[in-house]
Every structure is written in C-alpha cells, then in structure tokens.
Amino acid sequence: MSVTAPREYQHFIKGAWRKSESGKTLDVLNPATGELLTRVPAGDARDVDAAVAAAREAFTTWGQTSPAERQGILLEIANRIQKRARDYAELETLNVGKPIRETTNIDIPLAIDHYRYFAGVLRNLQGTTQTVDPTMLHLTLREPLGVVGHILPWNFPLLLAAWKLAPSLASGNTVVMKPAEQTPVTLLELANDLRDLLPPGVLNVVTGYGPDVGAPLASHPGVRKLSFTGETTTGRLILQYASENIVPATMELGGKSPHIIFPDADVERAIEGVMVGVFLNQGEVCSAGSRLFVHDAIYDRFMGKLVAKVKGLKIGNPMKEDTQLGAIVSREQMEKVLSYIEIGKKEGAALLCGGTRPTDPELAKGFFVTPAVFGDVNNKMRIAQEEIFGPVVSVIRWNDYDAMIAEANDIAYGLGAGLWTETLPLAIKTAKALQAGTVWINTYNALAAGAPFGGYKKSGFGRECAFDTLLHYTQIKSVFVSTAEKPMGLY
Ligand code: NAI
Ligand code: MG
To answer: Whose CA is nearest to atom 14 of ligand 1?
Structure first.
C-alpha cells in the first residue's frame, strides 16, 4: 500500500482548508477493517453559509469565463486525477471497501473520462437564432445558474462527484458539494489537488451529516440548483427544500432493476452479466440487477451454474488485486443487508447461498456479507420490491412473456433493466416495454460518458453523464433584437 489518508481533513471553502464552526468532527472508517481511516468536520449551517457565500462571490468571475478557458481547466482536472490515479483508487478502496480492481478499472478512469467528455461538449453549448420577421431577430443565450448544491451518496464517491462537478463547472456554475458522511476522502483529495487550478470559491466541499449539512445546503436561498443522488425518501425531502426557493433539482434515486433471462440466452455470458449486475461494488449500485427473472425452461440449469459461480466468488481484503467482493460501506448498511436476508427467509424465499458474515477471522472486524442468491421469489415479496443495496439477488421464475413484463414493471422504481436473448426483435421489443431510464441488452451496468443516465418513476428525473446534463445546469435567456429603421407606427 502506497497511500494513506491524512489524520484529519477540514472543510474546503474559498480555496482553503477551514475548521468547522462547531469544532466537531466525525470518524471516517475503513469498512474492511472497521478501523479509523481519518476524521472530517461534522459541519453545520454556518459552514454551509460560508461555502455558499464563497461560491456566490466566485460566480461573478467564473460565470464570465470563456468556454475555451473552462475547457482547458476541465482537461487539466482530468490530467491531475490521472497523475494520481493509483492514489485515488487506493483511497477509494480504503474508504468504500470496494475491490481495488474496480476502483482502478472503473471508478477512477470513468471519473477522468467525464471531465474530458464535458470539456469537449461544453463547446457545443450554444443558443439558437431565428428570424421572426424581416426586422426582428431572436436569439437564445444559455447562461449558468449560479451556485449549485450537490449532495452525494457513498457508493461511487469520486465518480458521482464527477457526474455532477464536471457539467456544473463546464457550464460556468460554482459549486458547494456535500459528500456522504461515510466517504468524503477522495473528493477532499481532489479539492486539494485543484487548489491552484480553480479560482477560490469555485469548488467548495462541506462535510458532515445529512440533516446538519445537506438540509441547510438544499434549503439555502443562495443556491440556484440542486443535484442529489441517494435514497428516494431523502430525495423527497430535498425536493421539499427546493420548492421553498423554487430551484430546479436533479434527482438520481433508488432502484430495484429487473434483469431478464430468456430461454435462448447465452448462458455463460448471461451468468457473468448477472454477477456484474448484482455483485459489482457489493451490490451497492443504484442500478443493480437485483430482481432476476429466469425463464422456466432453463431455470434449473441456469440456477445451478449461477449458485456454483457465486459460491466461488473471492470475498476479502479489497486492497488485494484478486478480490472480487469487498466490504459493505458501513456497519449500518451491513446490518440492513443482513436484516433483508432474514426478511427473505421469513417471506418463504429459498436462500440458496450466502447472506452471512464470512467465517474467515481476518474479515471479522470488517463489514462483509457473503454473496446471496434467493430462489423461489415472488415479485410481491419485500426482497423483490425494496432496495437492499447489498450482494443479494432475488430470483423470480417466469414462463409467460406478458405476465413477466407486467411483473418487471410492477415496481415503484425505474432506473435500469437488463435482458439476455439472442433474438434481436425480442430484445428490442422488450427494451421498449421496460419502464427504465437505461436498458442493457446482453450486457449489464455498462456506463459511458455521453450515455444519459437517470430514472423513470420514483428513481428520479433529470439525466446525468450526457450533453443533456449541460442543459439542466443552464437557463435560457431569450433575446429579441429589432433591426427596424423606422417606428412601427402604433403610437
Ligand atoms: P441517504 O439518501 O440518506 O444519503 C445520501 C446523501 O444524502 C448523503 O450525503 C446524506 O448525508 C444526505 N442526506 C441524508 N439525509 C439528508 C437530509 N435530511 N437532508 C439533506 N441531505 C441528507 O442514503 P443512506 O442513508 O446513506 O443510504 C440508505 C439507502 O439509500 C441505501 O441502503 C440504499 O438503498 C439507498 N442509496 C441509494 C443510492 C443510489 O445511488 N441510488 C446511493 C446511496 C444510498
Ligand atoms: Mg439516510
């Protein structure tokens, strides 16, 4: 291991470290060992006030920068993360508990790519013109909104920060970010690495608990837009705050995504897809394919192979290169996952493997849960309807296409969906029938800068990662220009 977190961080406000007004701190743990990783301020409304004030002041100049200038800065952000890519990967793994092979190959490179993507497309953020009549020209200007407030979850800290920070900066906004209390490390490292690059106040990071920092940020009258990723119930609260100040909000909320196996699926690839769908990041993924619909005709064969594969997953120290399943982010989340295992058993589902804490004494202090497969699940059960956010897949047997599609859509959420078939017309028909913001055909959990990501139904609204996102971070000004040389003659 080559990198460790400092003993303590401060808030990052106006380009400098700043102690919390409260003087309180909160402990940040390494979930794989249960040990203290670092401490961060447990901020409150006073820190949020200072950060918003700094961001407002910075907006007066940052909002006037040229697209070319912002492009250069975003490219440099990407380069700086790239330069320390291994440090970022290790710190993310130490803080979140996810395998180093994931942070190295997914979180960090994708984060870098989002800065590059938005550096590119920001040059296409243009208005329109029209000739209204021979003496009237109309044009639109796309203007930044001002201070944007970001409230982040703990599952992909640096990547989801990029999803919000890159388009916000690209379109000329300044930012106050609140990382999840469990996982603030990589964002604070990034703020530090950008100290001499971004003018003071353009990026501010305030750490602390949701009700103490997130709520004052979301209800702050100086904030012109909110972007939130997290639990649906928290999203509802944030929207209430947003309604007080009439500000737009992007909501990326929970999911319980259907993943459908047709009888003609390529079984080897589909099984790998199922594992990517629900064991990547220990299943702590909003788009996890956690409701698996397996066709009756191949159910027994498919399940036999799947369970054998799941039992062979390498669970353990996430810093080891060959670890496939790391630790759950926190004790609280681990207990939540374990409680759903009990709920599933009580509901009458068959626990085919996993769902326990591992017996390996080396893992005893960490927050690990062995990967679990529930068979004989009914779509009405809580383990089929509620977001568990852990390495648990609920498998439903199906044989009638229309009934299966109805069940797949019989859920409050609509974030992702996946399907496996070798029949193209069936794949497209099914993709159209599924109520989800993203559908994966013969793959799962693929993400790319440029591919809009977001939810249907209670999974939220607004789209991240794509050109559309820039539109959400700007407002339109309509400008009418008369070229008349004489009065109209009306008065
Ligand atoms: P959460 O929604 O409570 O936390 C997400 C962020 O919101 C954190 O930064 C938190 O501090 C903040 N927050 C919490 N309460 C707030 C409030 N009243 N006002 C403003 N901000 C507030 O999610 P939590 O409790 O960490 O996780 C619980 C469950 O949420 C998970 O088990 C999972 O099911 C779901 N979740 C979904 C995510 C997704 O990507 N869709 C991400 C994280 C959690
Ligand atoms: Mg919560």
So the answer is: 210
**Distance of alpha carbon 149 from alpha carbon 433, whole angstroms:** 35
Residues ≥6 apart with Cβ < 8 Å to 53:
222
Tokens 């961060």 identify what position? 40
Domains of the chain: 11-253+459-477 (3.40.605.10), 258-441 (3.40.309.10)
Residue 444 near residue 276 (C-beta atoms within 8 A): yes
Q: How far is the CA of 230 from the centre of ligand 1 (A)?
A: 4
| Catalytic residue chosen out of the listed positions 102, 286, 387, 464 | 286
Tell the burial category of 66 from Cβ atoms under 10 Å away from its Cβ (0-12, 13-18, 19+). exposed
286 close to ligand 1 (CB < 6 Angstrom): yes
Kindly give the distance from the C-alpha atom of residue 388 to the centroid of ligand 1, in angstroms, as a whole number. Answer: 13
Segment 396-437, tens digit of pLDDT: 999 999 999 999 999 999 999 999 999 999 999 999 999 999
Whole-angstrom distance, CA of residue 150 vs CA of residue 157: 12
Predicted model pTM: 0.97
Cα-based torsion angle of the residue sequence 90, 318, 117, 272 in order, rounded to the nearest 10 degrees: 160
Determine if ligand 1 sits within 6 Å of the CB of residue 152: yes
- For residue 219, what are its two tokens? 């209800």
- Distances in Å between the Cα of 97 and the Cα atoms of 28, 30, 367, 395 are 12, 7, 9, 26
464-486 pLDDT, tens digit per residue, is: 999 999 999 999 999 999 999 99
> Annotated catalytic, 342?
no
Q: Among residues of the chain, what percentage have pLDDT more than 70? A: 100
Measure the CA–CA gap between 188 and 193, rounded to whole angstroms.
9
